[in-house]
Write a structure and sequence with these properties.
The complex is a heterodimer.
Chain A: H1 22-25, H2 36-49, H3 60-81, H4 83-93, H5 108-123, H6 127-153, H7 157-184
Helix pairs in contact in A: 2-3, 3-4, 4-7, 5-7, 6-7
Chain B: H1 5-12, E1 27-34, E2 39-47, E3 53-61, H2 64-77, H3 82-85, H4 90-97, H5 104-130
Antiparallel strand pairs in B: 1-2, 2-3
Helix pairs in contact in B: 1-2, 2-5, 4-5
Chain lengths: ~180, ~130
């Protein structure tokens, strides 16, 4: 397991966060499949050791380093716990920019599906109609996550990129559905 | 981030919202999306036999800047020839709406939507001519 320990193993003094990736920072291998409970345990354990109270009597330099470590740790935690963020980050580590580099989406089937679902959501008039769409989107998002684990494990980054884009659209729809649910309730 | 008055105006009173008949042979449809934010934009044109855009409609699911960009785009292309409509650049849209740098991609989306709609119309016209 690659680990980027925030403390010196010899003298236990806090270290600069350095350039470790989000996976290494929490002691995980670079993979899409991570155990959220394990991420959570590791995160809270490290945050406890980096708590500002523990550095109240330390030097200003150590206080600053502990804060920098805590910030890096938060970034790592948020990325690893978010199925979409984790996919985007894994692709970025492989040099793939999911932002499209200013280009628009070149996947007509995906766009048609996204437009159709967003139109259906905009036209939903009852909570039950919104819930039906949310149910469908959640099931498809779950299928995307299962596919992503397989695709990243198999090193098929092109297909992982496509699945990530699809998950981006599904997540956006689910965000909108939350707002829509309040409007029709 | 503060939106410009023009963006707010288009957002509150979007011009030409709606759909045209996708299957009609005088209608071109452009469907584009922004990969980073999950926005999706549909822009449609109805073109006369002499190549003038008679009507334009859009439907955008996205932020205020994306809605304003597509609303403005439909306003600009109505009454223009296809060739003139093609000269509209995202920079013109961004400048008119005073879009901040982080929202430039919304104007890119609108430019690409115009181009995609024109390309779709031309493909249909070519297919029809070949019959």
């Amino acid at each position: 397991m690659p680990a980027a320990e925030p403390f010196c193993p010899a003298c236990t003094a806090v270290q600069p966060p350095g350039q470790a990736d989000h996976f290494a920072r929490l002691g995980f291998a670079r993979a899409y499949d991570v155990d959220p409970a394990a991420v959570e345990r590791r995160y809270f354990e490290l945050q406890r050791r980096l708590h500002p109270d523990r550095f109240a009597t330390k030097s200003p330099k150590e206080r600053a380093l502990s804060q920098a470590q805590a910030t890096s740790l938060n970034d790592a935690y948020e990325t690893l716990m978010d199925p979409l963020g984790r996919a985007v980050y894994l692709l970025r580590l492989s040099g793939i920019d999911t932002g499209g580099d200013g280009k628009t989406v070149d996947d007509p089937a995906l766009l048609m599906e996204a437009m159709e679902m967003r139109e259906a959501l905009a036209e939903a008039r009852t909570p039950a109609e919104v819930d039906a769409l949310v149910g469908r989107a959640r099931a498809e998002a779950e299928a995307c996550r299962v596919a992503l684990a397989r695709l990243f494990a198999g090193g098929d980054l092109a297909a992982a990129g496509k699945a990530t884009l699809r998950l981006t659209y599904l997540d956006k729809l689910l965000d909108d559905a939350r707002a829509r649910r309040l409007n029709v309730a | 981030m503060a939106y410009s008055e023009k963006v707010i105006d288009h957002y509150n009173n979007p011009r030409n919202v709606g759909s045209l008949d996708k299957g009609a042979e005088d209608v071109g449809t452009g469907l584009v999306g922004a990969p980073a934010c999950g926005d999706v934009m549909k822009l449609q044109i109805r073109v006369s036999a002499d190549g003038i855009i008679q009507d334009a409609k859009f439907k955008t699911f996205g932020c205020g800047s994306a809605i304003a960009s597509s609303s403005l785009a439909t306003e600009w292309i109505k009454g223009k020839s296809l060739n003139d409509a093609e000269t509209i650049k995202n920079t013109m849209i961004a400048q008119h709406l005073a879009l901040p740098p982080v929202k430039i991609h919304c104007s890119v989306l609108a430019e690409d939507a115009i181009k995609a709609a024109i390309a779709d119309y031309r493909a249909k016209a070519t297919a029809k001519a070949a019959e």
